[in-house]
Amino acid sequence: MSALTDFLHRLLRDAVRISWTLFRIMVPVIVAVKVLEELGAVVLLSRLLEPVMAWVGLPGGMGLVWATAMATNLYGGIVVFAALADTTPLSVAQVTVLTGMMLIAHSLPVELRVAQQAGARLRAMLLLRVGGALLFGMVMNLLYTRGGWLQAPAVLPWRPEPAAAGWVAWALGELQGLALIFVVVVGLLLTLRVLERIGVIRLVNRLLRPLLRLLGIGEQAMTLTLVGMTLGISYGGGLLIAESRAGHVSRFDVLYAMSLLGLCHSLIEDTLLMLLLGGHLSGILWARLAFALVAVFLLVRLVGRLPLGFVDRHLVRNPAAGRPLAAEEGR
């Protein structure tokens, strides 16, 4: 009984520590984004993006949808998309391109801050997310257009309920979201502990080791990367922050893991959300996953040719300055 009590105590202690790290990052950013949203910053960003939408075969008005998703979150983008759906008809291919871009680049103020706290450079992650989304959109638009695929008119299968107005309703919604994050973190830690005890982690490590070695992600960061890919960057990133600060994960693992998570995370929840908007699985899941893996593979090859000084200044800081990690030997 004492062993169980000690286990639960350590579990809750770790969950509070990780959640507190996330909350210190998220709360100021959430408040700042809300203020900027009220001041019209999202509308201004959407106007800047209108010409860019032509590059990916979308009407200029869809820039507001993507801008909202990037500045706030996917749910904000969904609400704007639903409001424009009747007046801006799109094909299934166009919806897939838009939702794929939203999946790669959304919630940037919060998620970029999480990546930064893990050790990745903010400007590098911003360029990767926004540039990656645009490149993905251009490639998918070219494929769908040249192949004549998914050109039927899109039908919006679900419309979200309008969000309650006012700062109080917004604050209550955000508090509920933070509480849910703590619950999920507890569940994640418990699951990881159990999987480690019964040997599942070792089995998964063994099965995925060739792919991760190819991508340059070490085994210490593998489980955390899988958490982020399946559940979300805040959860995987939060765990990665803790491991990075403890010196258990090299700066190269941080860079490659956060790059992969930036391009492809929350494969379950976010993919389902974009399906409800009419996105096609060929783009929002399979093409996005393949794009992320290829992009990180190329990134690993590029970083391997760069001087360490350049990597530290522009891509990722060394979390263990003055005490080299074994994981970085033999780069």
UniProtKB/TrEMBL annotation:
Transmembrane helix in keyword set: yes
Keywords: Membrane, Transmembrane, Transmembrane helix
UniProt key word Transmembrane: yes
Transmembrane regions: 20-45, 126-144, 164-190, 211-235, 285-304
InterPro entries for the chain: Gate_dom
Domain Nucleoside transporter/FeoB GTPase Gate residues, every copy: 20-107
Protein name: Nucleoside transporter/FeoB GTPase Gate domain-containing protein
Native organism: Thioalbus denitrificans
